[in-house]
């Protein structure tokens, strides 16, 4: 169940483009609690936390435990991959980043 809640919360946060901190401020659920749900450390969050989060997103508390469809999961995996790739590229030295982007441009011609 925890994995499904983690994925469902991550999906809702992506759709609404809200950070953990902003969600914590909007719901009153502590940011570390949100992080523990997302990182699958918390198996069963307190009911009041689930209610506050569900109310914020306009969904039923029960839907927080539903597994996303395979299509939604594939899209989430793709989005996660792109985010990770972006962060890796952004953290390269400028000279390495320039070389990578040059190679990409050359290969896409």
DSSP strand content: under 5%
Q: Please, how many helices? A: 6
The arrangement of helices and strands along the chain is HHHHHH
Residue-averaged pLDDT, rounded? 85
Q: Could you explain the architecture of this structure?
A:
With 109 residues, the chain is mostly helical. The longest helix has 21 residues. The chain has two domains: 64 residues, Orthogonal Bundle (434 Repressor (Amino-terminal Domain)), CATH 1.10.260; 38 residues. The chain has six helices and no strands.
Quick summary of this structure?
This protein is mainly α and about 110 residues long. Helix content is about 70%, strand content about 0%.
How are the SSEs placed, and which strands pair?
Blueprint: H1 2-16, H2 20-27, H3 31-38, H4 47-57, H5 70-90, H6 94-107
What descriptive keywords fit this protein?
single chain; 109 residues; mainly alpha; 434 Repressor (Amino-terminal Domain); 2 domains; 6 helices; 71% helix; 0% strand
